[in-house]
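Consider the following assembly input.
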Amino acid sequence: MQSGAQMEIDDPRIVPEPVTSAEPTAVAAPAPAARLADLPLTNAAVLTSPTMLTVEGLNLFYGSKQALFDVNLKVAKNTVMAFIGPSGCGKSTLLRCLNRMNDLIEGVRIDGEVRIGDSNIYEPGVDVISLRKRTGMVFQKSNPFPKSIYENVAYGLRIQGVRDRRILDEAVESSLQAAGLWDEVKDRMRESALSLSGGQQQRLCIARALAVNPEVLLMDEPCSALDPIATSRIEELIFELKKKFTIVIVTHNMQQAARASDFTAFFWLGKLIESGLTEKMFTNPRERTTEDYITGRFG
Amino acid sequence: MVRHFDSELQDLRDGLMAMAGQVEEMIDLSKAAVSEGSAAKAEQVKALDRLVDEQELKLDQACIDLLALRSPIATDLRLIASSLKIIPEIERIGDHCCNIARRVLYIHPPVLAGDALERLAGETRGMVREAVNAFVRGDAELARKVIADDDKVDAIYVQIYKDLLRIMLADPMCIERASNLIIVIKNWERIADQATNIAEEVLFILEGVNVKHTYLQAGKDQTES
C-alpha cells in the first residue's frame, strides 16, 4: 500500500496528506489506504488497477430468445465486482459466460468477446478445461463431493496429475487457510465433507476453488443459503481474497453488494443499465432505474 | 471475528480526531493572539479554518456513505449518527476562533486588568480538550465533567461582562475596545457550549441516553412514575 505522498495517481480527488504537527513516532504505522475525497470508503487503488476481465459486445441467445444485449464491462484486477438486478435480468447468465459454463446448455448462441487478460476465451481452439483452472466458481448451494475434507480440496490438483504428497498437503492447508476454514477442520481432514455445517461447506467449496490457484473467482449467490453469521464470514473472507484474486459475485442481497464490492453492475431485462464504483452507485446512482431497484421501489 | 467495518469506523474516529486537533491548535493560537495582540497569529487562525472546513466536507461524506453502504445498527449507528452532529460542532468552534482572531487588533491596549480573560480562555480550552478526549477514550465520566464545567465558564463570562460594562461607564474612551472584547468573550463562551454539546453526544454514543434538555427529561420522569 502506498502512502499519499508517494502516490503517483494523477487524480485530483485523492485526499491530500493531512497537515499534522505530531512528533514522528518510533514505529511507523502502516500507511492507510489512499481514499477518494468524494468517496471516502473507496480505496483509490481500485481506479488504477489494470483490467483483468473484459466483456465486449456480448449477446446471448437461448434459441430465439435473447437473454443478454450488447453487454460491455470491465473488471479490474484485485477488486470485487457485484452483479445485481431482479431475477431473470441476466446476471447469472453473464457470470456463466465468464467461464463458458453456458457451453453446456443446448441451443445457446453467444457472440461478442470475453477476455481474461488479453486472451479471448471464446476464441476457437481455447482449452475449456485450462480456462476453468483460471476461473474458480462457487455456487449458490454448496456442493462438496461426498469425499473427505482433504480430498475435496485436493481434487483439482489430483485431476491435474499432481501426486506429490507434500505439494498436495501444502496446497490443501494454504487453501483452507485462505478460505478461513483451516482452524476448524485441521484435526478432522479425513472426515466426510458432508459432516460440515452449511457455512463450513461453502467455505470448503471456496477452498476447493482456490486450490488450483485461479486468477478469477466467480461467486453465484454464495451466501443465499447461509445464516447471517456464516454470511458475514464469507463477506469478510471476500475482503481478504481480493488481495490475491479478482472476484465477481452475483447477489440478490443489496446490502451484501454494498458491503463487499468495489464496483457494482446493475442489470435489467438482459441489459447492463449502469456500472461503477459501489460507493457511488449506492449513494448517488446515475440512472433512475438503478435508484428504484436498490431502494426497493421496483415495479 | 474481525470486521472490515471496524477499520472504517476507526478511520472515521481518526478523521474526527484530526479535525479536532486542528481546531485545538486554532484555540491555542487565538488565545495567544488575544493576549499578545499578535496579528500574525490571528492570520494563522484564519488559514487553519480552511483546512477544518475541508475536513468537515470529507467527514460528512464518510458518514453518509457509511450509513448508505453498511446499514449500521446499535453502537455502530450511534457512533455515526453522533459523528454527524459532532462534526459541525467542531467546525463551529473553528469559526468562533476566527471571530476572536478578527477582533485581536481592536482590543489593545487592554482595558481589563487581572487574569479573568486568561481564565475564561483556559477553562474553555480545557473543556474542548476533555470533550475530545472523552470521545477518543470512550470516557463517560470525563464527558459528564465537561458538561458540569460549562457553568464555571458561564460564571466567568458573566463576571467579565459586568466588569466591562462598568469600565465603559467610567471611561467612554474604552467603549470601542471593551465592546470588541465583549464579542471575544461571547465567542469563548460559545466554544464552551460547543464542547458541552460534543460531550453530550459522547454520552449518547457510549450509553445510548440522550442527556440534552434535562428540564424536559425531568418532566417525562415525573409523568412516568
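Chain B has a mean pLDDT of 93. Ask yourself how this observation constrains the way the partners meet.
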